[in-house]
Design brief:
Elements lengths: L17 H6 L5 E9 L4 H20 L3 E10 L10 H11 L5 E4 L2 H4 L3 H13 L3 E4 L4 E2 L5 H32 L13 E3 L5 E3 L1 H15 L4 H10 L13 H9 L7 E3 L2 E3 L7 E3 L7 E3 L9 H15 L18 H5 E3 L6 E8 L2 E8 H6 L10 E2 H17 L1 H15 L8 H24 L8 H43 L10 H7 E6 L4 E6 L4 E5 L4
Parallel strand pairs: 1-2, 1-3, 3-4, 12-16
Antiparallel strand pairs: 4-5, 6-7, 8-11, 9-10, 13-14, 14-15, 16-17, 17-18
Length: 541
Amino acid sequence: MSSTPECTVTMIPAKLSPQASAGRRRGPLRVAAYCRVSTDDKEQLTSYQNQITYYTEKINSNPDWTLAGIFADEGITGTSTKKRKEFNKLITLCKQGKVDIILTKSTSRFARNTVDCLEYTRMLRELGVAVVFEKENINTATMNSELVLSFYGSFAQAESESLSKNVSLGNRYGFKQGRVRMNYKYLLGYRKGDDGKPEIVPEEAVVVRRIFHSFLAKYSIGRIKAELEQDGIPSPLKKSQWSRSAIENILRNEKYIGDALLQKTFVTDCISKKVKKNNGELPQYYVKDNHPAIIEREIFNQVQEEFARRNSKPKASPKANRGKFSSQYALTELLYCGECGTPYRRCTWARSGRKKIVWRCINRLENGKTVCKNSPTIPEGELHDAILRSLQLLATQQDEIQEGLQDALRAAVISQDGNSPDAIDRMIAGQVDKRKKLMRDVIEQGETEESHIADFAMIANAISVLRLQKAEAEQDAVKHENTKARLAAMWERLNSADINLETYDDLLVKQMVESVKVLSREKVQIRFKMGIEIGMELSLL
């Protein structure tokens, strides 16, 4: 019986194809350097010059290298590559095949955005360009460098996030102290005075007053725009053309009455730097009488009421695509049908020579009982009486209502796990430290990163969960503060000396009431802007 021959393995050495050999460049390697400093103060600029000198000497001293260029951005943030002109020039040169190696001090100098760091190093490796990070001792030409690079990039990004958070906290502390920063470039009517405080520009103030008074005279935004341009009045940006948004911003800007609302917008994160309108995500601070006023408060308030009137746009149904109409009466904006959800309309009944004011569901009025079967017609006097009684009830039971609301608010801000945002921050910091220690152990012990991928993934998952918990806790806290401020304003208005709770007042109703739902001919449900709902019986007058 013949035996099976022993298996043998022979290695065939790798070699370049004739095509690759022909395309391989001979001669010294073309080496470029990239440096960056994040600020333009004197100390940092000195470092910037030192970096240029260092890399020039280092490249020129190596006989196997030739200088391909020193690229340096000064005073530019590292969180994004969009505004780094020299960096982008370097990348273009690499794409043209004119660079073999890039030297840079560290991952934080190359990019503080993990995504950008990995994206560019991968692209450069595909182009045959190696990136050498001196501080971390990483050469992207090696195949096992990417995982290590991702962790260092994450640390650099975390540093940027920490710095950004510190800046944000500093700004918010300033907001709490009532420190107002004026952007005079876009603020028509004001300039920075010799004392550093805002002062009125008389000729521009005339234009601001003209815009306010024209709007109250029932001029449309388009007409105001056309007349300003016709008269050759420059916009806030000193342009001959006005935008509709510029005019509306002037009409809505509280700075013209001497006040300032702080933290109208915020930056979502330090990477994208996207600016978002603050819709309650963060607390706002209102500074009253901060600087000289151009517009009287009463005029400003009238303008805001006029905006509310013009913007009311109720629709009867999908069939009734109605345009804007006058909301002269408060209930035009507030009263709606409990059956179909359509707004009510004020109507005049004339019977037997007598006139009677009533409110009727627009959907039923225009489309009949087939689309809204049971919506009742409500006399205006009964509605006014019910709303007035609900306001009186609020005023007389203020202490009890406020105590109940405060208890509900306190309960709402306690997270399910009982942790505050600060406590969660400490837990996140603990996980970050754990990740750093694990990374150091991997490097010091000479182990492969792959053997600890599960550990790194577990830490990353824990951090993600904690950040989600923190976001939820912060959101609850913000809602709590905003609600408290709204409640305080409502109670103050209800208790002010000029309030008469003996007669119905349209203006007071607009300020206090969010909606009035018609439940039946005998009952309505009134929801106040402070979140309280009261069911009121209609007195059949």
